């Protein structure tokens, strides 16, 4: 078996909304392992907190409970729950990628540069980075006339391909994917699935949420089913 | 990654101050004005680290003390207390124990500032090119021809029309004035740049182009920046980490996406919710 890169142990997340004096449970007692060159898929009904697990690992959310042990390229293990902000930023730059449904980019930046951005940040020359971006975008059949304009006005499916290309380009060690094929037509989704398989073969560990059970069946080496978190009252009892 | 700036316990009180100033002000007290002595506790106990090439956001409502933070670090105002260490290659400077000449030297050579109000950053009585030349002269550079060439290159980089190099900045649009300010701040290629509400009050499209320019510069030159703004959109686009201030105190710090998507403090939750 391939070595584990990520071990999530008892992850939990709830939101405390001060204004409304409310506690909102989002993920509860989630545990699993992600290995190099393998894909772990999260499944479960809406409200089971799938996205909130990905966001907790990326530290867009501050986890409320558990440990997230990550083994970095140097072989050091660190708990992402406790890692410093600068450690997290460094990991995001060098090792951990996240493909979401949202795209925040500068209004004037050309799609090619939006995609090449992670390579720019690693100090790769602009020409080489753009060349690689162009390869990925053509592999995903994003029309070439769109490459030089900003993705700000793109359709959902076009934007999703930009996000994917940007997530793939630096070949992260760990890639988090939140419904990466949700807004794609079947033929384009098929191409993306091919690229995911390619990255996996090159050793990237992946943690993914797929819209279609069929995609999960095809790509996942391991499936983790999440149950919706218990109601607040039960959570409180547990804490007490 | 190396640290470039370490700020600890930075405070600034305007007024005589009294023993009750601190307990009578801040987010809990809901004011920065001491009811006992009338002093303004503009900032108190602000601490943060900044790393090379990093962009840190300072957010908060009007009067929360954002500008005061950068003004003290740029030596526009002396702090009441606190410490700041600037790490510059192999040297390190304890900013507030330097003498005036040393502080001026750092300002002119190693720091850059872009103000919301171009009046503060530019000399309106001399041309755009002259403004940049002035800064280059202060940093003891070269002959007239070289300075003029460098000034033109900087203005070109910040997309100011070269045909306007000899015009007075007071005849420029707001967006163009900011570009000249940015060119001036960058003249000495400082490793540390302070930006105070640089896009506030500009048209959206002009804003967008200036934000683009700032990020391009950051990527090209790896300049570390402290970006002060009350605009959460600017915070999201430019910064990796942010601090949230209210009535002079830091009430939350974190990764920018975390502050915007999972704010911890009641105040930040309200701030973010109201911006959606
Ligand atoms: N020279 C001064 N004398 C007295 N009070 C001052 C002085 N400069 C600033 N203050 C006060 O210090 C507090 C913080 O001001 P500061 O300019 O840092 O706020 P800010 O967060 O930048 O606000 P804005 O978003 O409106 O620019 C305010 O209450 C302000 O009135
Ligand atoms: Mg201000
Ligand atoms: Zn007082």
Summarize the helices and strands and which ones pair or pack:
The complex is a heterodimer of chains A (240) and B (276).
Chain A: E1 4-17, E2 22-35, E3 39-43, H1 50-58, E4 65-71, E5 77-79, H2 85-94, E6 96-99, H3 111-121, H4 126-139, H5 156-169, E7 174-178, H6 186-201, E8 205-209, H7 213-219, E9 222-225, H8 232-239
Parallel strand pairs in A: 3-8, 3-9, 6-7, 7-8
Antiparallel strand pairs in A: 1-2, 1-4, 4-5
Helix pairs in contact in A: 3-4, 3-5, 4-5
Chain B: E1 3-14, E2 40-51, E3 55-60, H1 66-73, E4 81-88, E5 91-94, H2 100-109, E6 111-114, H3 118-121, H4 128-138, H5 144-157, H6 174-186, E7 192-196, H7 204-221, E8 224-228, H8 232-238, E9 241-246, E10 249-255, H9 256-261, H10 266-275
Helix pairs in contact in B: 4-5, 4-6, 5-6, 6-7
The complex binds adenosine-5'-triphosphate, magnesium ion (MG) and zinc ion (ZN).
Describe it.
- The complex is a heterodimer of chains A (240) and B (276).
- Chain A has 240 residues and is an alpha/beta fold.
- Chain A is 37% helix and 25% strand.
- In chain A, the strands form two sheets. A five-stranded parallel sheet of chain A has the order 6-7-8-3-9, with helices on both faces. A four-stranded antiparallel sheet of chain A has the order 2-1-4-5.
- The longest helix of chain A is centred in the last third of the chain and has 16 residues, at 186-201.
- The termini of chain A are far apart.
- By secondary structure, chain B is α/β, with parallel strands linked by helices.
- Chain B has a domain at 3-110 and 192-197 and 223-275: 3-Layer(aba) Sandwich (Rossmann fold).
- Chain B has ten helices and ten strands.
- The chains are: A alpha/beta (240), B alpha/beta (276).
- The A-B interface holds A 15-19, 55, 59-62, 85-86, 88-90, 104, 106-109, 120-121 and B 1, 49, 51, 54, 205, 208-209, 211-212, 215, 219, 236-237, 240-241, 253-255, 257-258, 261-262, 264-266, 269-270, 273.
- The structure holds adenosine-5'-triphosphate, magnesium ion and zinc ion (ZN).
- The site of adenosine-5'-triphosphate has 13 residues of chain B, from strand 2 and helix 1.
- Residues 14, 32, 40, 42, 60, 62-68, 230 of chain B line the site of adenosine-5'-triphosphate (ATP).
